[in-house]
Amino acid sequence: MTDLSDFIALSLLPISWGRTIAERLRAGRRAGDIFDALVAERWPKQPARRADIASRTAQAIDRAARAGVDVVTWGDALYPPALAAIVDPPPVLWLRGTPSSLTNRPPVGIVGSRAATPYAMAVAGELAGDLASRGITIVSGLARGVDSAAHRGALAGGGETIAVLGSGADVMYPPEHAPLAADIERQGAVISELVPGTPPNPIFFPQRNRIISGLSRAIVVIEAGEKSGSLITARCALEQGRDVLAVPGNVLNGRNRGAHALLRDGAKIVESADDILEELGLCAGGGVAAGGSAAPQRDPVLASLPLGEACDLDTIAERTGLHSSKLLPRLFDLELQGFVRRAGGGRFVRFDRSC
């Protein structure tokens, strides 16, 4: 198999193997070798499974070519470093739209109720539009309610937005959002870890939530009930070291109990886009915080990055003694200031900005 088909084959292995796959990829092992080893270890007497995955891999590549779906693998320069840093990143991302939107701008996730009130829809649209107009990419799940309002707000704000699906990138769910998905493709990307042609399934939505949070520097929750799927996204965000913020709402109808529980647990209250930008350390204009124009003095993260050497998060963490949850925001800030660039495979490179 080629490298691309090797990565796709890895993506077709059970999701429960994701951490092991990520650990071996980070250790520098080739995707094909990882696949062969895992199949030998865990399916030693089931050759039909290997043949089935080979067939499904070929079908996925063919369907993607016919549907105009691009593929970004774990080792590509366009694979988002923040997503590569989670414990179980998807080996591939199937994408319709603009691949560079995955890494162009700082991303913020906005999630909430599918059966959203007009208030929640208005807040989601306004926050997303304001953030998008200031250079923030909006990430959400293309679901009914808050998700769709956030995507539409970002588009109206003239910015980029990323929709993460719980189906193949060529299978729109809910189907009435196909026109919205087409608009997103022109101003961002529709992505999925699932091979093209995969129909929506309830088991896929909780696992796609880790991608929404993994792509994002922060997650904003709007109108979430006690059993809302948005709370799964918030929990993933906390486990990944991301900031979690919430919009307060009506206390009488029960629709906001999940979001209010997050606030009681320490989530930052969001009343405007400025609250989110402040939490991210960005100024009101969407740029770096005040003082970011000059080279950071004795910055331990920069000091750990020799000029021109691409380093992954584990290497930087070992050199600085900082956890990845602290490193990622700092690396993003250094990138915005112009001192660091992203490289393939979730790595970062320092360069001389004076050149």
Major beta sheet summary? 9 strands, mixed
Order of helices and strands: HHHHEHEEHEHEHEHEHEHEHHEHHEE
Helix percentage range: 40-55%
Compute the number of structural domains. Answer: 3
What's the overall geometry?
A: globular
> Percent of residues in beta strands?
5-15%
Please describe what this structure looks like.
- The protein is globular.
- The chain is 44% helix and 15% strand.
- With 355 residues, the protein is of the alpha/beta class.
- The longest helix is centred in the N-terminal third of the chain and has 21 residues, at 47-67.
- It folds into three domains: 1-67, no CATH class; 99-280, Rossmann fold; 300-350, Winged helix-like DNA-binding domain superfamily/Winged helix DNA-binding domain (Arc Repressor Mutant, subunit A, Orthogonal Bundle), CATH 1.10.10.
- Strands 1-2-6-5-4-3-7-8-9 form a nine-stranded mixed β-sheet, with helices on both faces. It has a three-stranded antiparallel β-sheet with strand order 10-12-11.
- The protein has helices at residues 3-11, 18-26, 31-42, 47-67, 81-84, 118-133, 146-156, 178-186, 204-215, 229-239, 257-264, 273-280, 300-303, 313-320, 324-337, and strands at 70-73, 92-97, 107-112, 137-140, 161-164, 188-192, 218-222, 243-247, 268-269, 310-312, 340-343, 347-350.
